[in-house]
Fold these 4 entries.
Entry 1:
Amino acid sequence: MTFQPSAATNAMFGADCEFDPVTGRPFEKGSGALPKEDQAANFLRERDRAADMPKEGERCIQTNRAFEFSSGCLTKARQTAIFLSELSPAEKAARAAAAQHLADVVPAGKA
C-alpha cells in the first residue's frame, strides 16, 4: 500500500515534499539530510523496533512476567531472553522436558 498525502499533509509539509511510500513519513531535505534510501531504511528499522516494544500491562507469554515499558526499556524479545536466563535450574529443566514432550508427539495422521 502506498502512502497518498492528504491536502492537510501537503499544507503542513509543502506540496513538493516527498514521502516514504511504505511508512508514509516525510523525507528530510537539505544539506544535512541522508539519502532517501538511508532514510527509508531508518524508517523501517524504527517501525519494526516500535512493533517489538512492550505496551503498558503487557506480560511475557513464556514466563508471565510483566514487561518493563518505560522510556528506554528493552524490546520484548530482549526482555524475554533475560527472563528466560533468570529461571531457576528446576524451571529450566521443566521447560526442557515440556519442549521434549512436544517434540516427541506424533502429528495427527502421521501415526
Entry 2:
Amino acid sequence: MANQFTPQPPEIVSIQKTSFVGQPAAIISGTEDLSGVPSGHSIGVKLENLTVGAWLTYTPVTVNSDGTWNAVVPSTSGDEAIAWAIVMGYTGPNSTSDPSKTFVLP
C-alpha cells in the first residue's frame, strides 16, 4: 500500500481586522508548503475557532499555486483559532495536516 501524502501545517503570515456586511471580521493570510503534493491534487485550508469550537470556513480555502492563501472570516476579538491544511482531490478520505500554531483573532 502506498503512503498517503500529508501536508505541512499552514503558516499564518498576517491577520488584519476588517468588517464584512457590517459585522466584525478578519483577513487571514498564510502560506502552505506545496512540495510533494501529488499530481492532480491541491491543498485547501480550513480555519477553526477554538474558543467556541466552530469552523470559521465551511469549505476549504484554496491555496494558490505559489503556496499563498487568504480568507475573510467572522472575528470575535480575543478568540483563539487554528488552521488545518487538507489534501483535495483524493477519492477516499482526504489527508489533513497537524494544526497551525494557535493565533488570536483581532
Entry 3:
Amino acid sequence: MSKEMPRMMLMPNHSAMDPAMIHMVKGVENKGVFIRNEYNKILDYIKCPEKEEQDIIVREIQIVQSQGADWKQPNWDALLGGKGQRAAKAN
C-alpha cells in the first residue's frame, strides 16, 4: 500500500504547506497574515503590512480550502502585482 503525498501549496513567502492543515487564516493590521492549525499553533507568517495584500492572501487561501482536492496553485506574483517576491525577502 502506497500513500500519496499531499499536494503542497506554495505561499507568497516561498514556504510550502498542505492546505488541509490550515484551520484559520487571519490578517493583522500593520503586521501580516498568520496561518494557524487546528491547535491554534502558527504554521506560517507572511509579513505584509498593507491591508489590500492581506485581503488578497486570505481570500486566495480560503478559495484553495473550499476547492478540496482539486485546488489550483494561486499565482501570487500576478495577484500581488509582483509583491510576492518582496514578501519572500521580508521574511
Entry 4:
Amino acid sequence: MTSVRSIAKRRSRVVERTSSLVLVRFALIVTFLVVIVLATFPLIRLTRAVASLSKENRALQIQIFELEQQLRQLKAEQTLLMSSREVIAPAPNER
C-alpha cells in the first residue's frame, strides 16, 4: 500500500513540475507577444509620421522648384528690360 502511495506522490510531483514548466513557458510566450504588440504601436505611429512628412517634403520641393523657375524668369525679364533701356553710368568722381 505504501508503494502505491509513493508512486502516486511521485507521479503528482512529476505532474506538478511539468505543469509548472508549461505555465512558465506559456507566461514567457505571452509576455513576449505583449511586448511585441506594445512595441508595434509606436512603430506604426512613426511610420505614419514619416509618410506624412515625406509627402509634405515632396510638395515643398515642388513649390521650391516652381519658385526658382519663376525667379529665373523674372531675372531674365529684368535683364531684357535693362538691356532695352539705356543705362547711364555716373562719372567716377560722382559716386
